[in-house]
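Here is a typical protein record:
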Amino acid sequence: MSKLFRASAVLSVLLAASTIASAADLKMPVKAPPRPAPPALVLQPFSWTGIYVGGNLGAGWSHRSLTDSRFGLQFDNGNNNATFVGGGQVGFNYQINYFVLGAEGDFDWAAKNSNTGTGVVIPNVGTIGVTSNNRWISSLAARFGVAVDRLLFYGKAGGGWVGADAFTLANSTTGASFVVANSRTESGWLAGGGVEWAITDAWSARLEYDYLGLGNRTFTVPLGSPILPGDTFTTHNRNVQMATVGINYRFNWGGSILPRY
């Protein structure tokens, strides 16, 4: 009987210890799982893609060779004096990897410069000078280039137009002058290129050179002219060249910060 009593007592003690341990386990705090780390912020590579508008200014030169049919004289040969040009441009870019494709339209005013020269002396006629100027230059061209991050090297190819002033003959000996042809718009082909640097995600600065090749033009002096009536003048090797600096503001620019998961 004493053995049974001792066994019962031991069993009771074990059951009580087990109950106390379980209750202690229930009262211990449960550790919460760690929170996930926030997504890292990464800067996208800069992109030239977007529509842009801007302005430019610089210098322009025009070139022509001018001869007449009656005397075979060279009235003008070589570059004219440089003149100030200034205007604006609008265009768009689309970047694919390192390549940038797009199109651009430009319009520039040209300051009027003397295009008369020293004149040509014709015996028994006088000293004859010829005057004409380009007052504005416009172009529409495709752009194609290679981007090195924020630096863009590009070329241009397309067409251009110039607003040519009247073609005027003047005899400095007699003081007579005569307008042979009125102002008109002339067209030609355009090629150029430049380099552009993105100062910020939206603003960029550029340096550009453009060459506008124009066709030959012929002027016949009316018979009623007091200067060389019936003579014919022909211009050869006509072109307009411009070197400009500009600044652009681009919409839909790249370079935004996005989360990486």
Observations:
- The radius of gyration is 40 Å.
